[in-house]
Structures are given as structure tokens and as C-alpha cells.
Automatic annotation (TrEMBL):
Stored InterPro entries: NTF2-like_dom_sf, YchJ-like, YchJ-like_M
UniProt similarity note: Belongs to the UPF0225 family.
Record HAMAP family: UPF0225
Domain YchJ-like middle NTF2-like per the UniProt entry, residue ranges: 38-132
Organism phylogeny: Bacteria, Bacillati, Actinomycetota, Actinomycetes, Mycobacteriales
PANTHER family: ADENYLATE CYCLASE-ASSOCIATED CAP C-TERMINAL DOMAIN-CONTAINING PROTEIN (PTHR33747:SF1), UPF0225 PROTEIN SCO1677 (PTHR33747)
Protein name per Swiss-Prot or TrEMBL: UPF0225 protein GPX89_24070
Highest taxon, organism lineage: Bacteria
């Protein structure tokens, strides 16, 4: 056995793009330790949930009115990076908000992007994703 150890990355960057480790960022929301205080934070955490394929989190952060029965993750799709373009309302004292974003992905190695304007609202105090319009 070799005495040399492989260097282990201590911090794994959070997929949402904030300069933090996943475990200290969206991981805390995914584990249910904290909840999103803004619609933008929920948006980021949902992007990360798609990236790490956390189906439970995606379903529980989805409005019960529009929530699908389950989520069909495409095994050939990898979510790479999130850009928040703009947001309206969605703050600690709001009950509704929108977040416009561009989500970059690779589908079987080919880069692509999803540009969406998402709507969020509070459901019993917690931010949830309602629906969104795909932009061009
Ligand atoms: Zn994050």
C-alpha cells in the first residue's frame, strides 16, 4: 500500500454558482436544515437539486397545484451552471416573486441552455416553484 494519498478536494463548489461548498450552501436546504428566505435562493437550490438529482427536494419545493408526480431525470443531461438574470419581488416580506435565469447544461456532451422566467409563491410560509415561461 502506498503511503501517498490522493489530494481530496475539501470544498466541492455548489452547483448554484455562489462561492460556497455545496454542503454549506444548497446542501443545507436539501437536507431540510434551513429554508429559502427569497425566491432567488429557492431557485438556486432547485437548480442545484437538478444538478445533484435530489428528487425529494424538487418535489417538496414545487407548488402542490403544479407539482408533477415524479421527476424523470435524463441520464444524458448534466446541469453545469446557473445565471440569474433578474428577479422581481420574492423577498422576505413578499408572497410572490419571479426569477429570470439561464441554466446551462450539457446533453450527451453538447452544450445548451434553458432561459426561463419562473414564478414562485409562498405555500404555508415556504417559497415554492409555481411555473415558468420559456424565453428565447
Ligand atoms: Zn448553492
Amino acid at each position: 500500500m502506498s503511503k501517498r494519498r490522493k489530494a481530496q478536494p475539501i470544498l466541492q463548489d455548489c452547483p448554484c454558482g455562489l462561492p460556497a461548498a455545496y454542503a454549506d450552501c444548497c446542501g443545507r436546504l436539501h437536507r431540510g436544515e434551513v429554508s429559502a428566505t427569497t425566491a432567488e435562493q429557492l431557485m438556486r437550490s432547485r437548480f442545484s437539486a437538478f444538478a445533484v438529482r435530489d428528487e425529494d427536494y424538487l418535489l417538496r419545493s414545487w407548488d402542490p397545484e403544479t407539482r408533477p408526480a415524479d421527476i424523470d431525470f435524463d441520464p444524458g443531461l448534466r446541469w453545469d451552471r446557473l445565471e440569474i438574470l433578474s428577479a422581481t419581488a420574492g423577498g422576505p416580506f413578499h408572497t410572490e416573486g419571479t426569477v429570470e435565469f439561464r441554466a446551462h447544461y450539457r446533453a450527451h456532451g453538447t452544450p445548451g441552455e434553458l432561459h426561463e422566467n419562473s414564478r414562485f409563491r409562498r405555500d404555508q410560509g415556504a417559497w415554492v416553484y409555481l411555473d415558468g415561461d420559456i424565453e428565447n
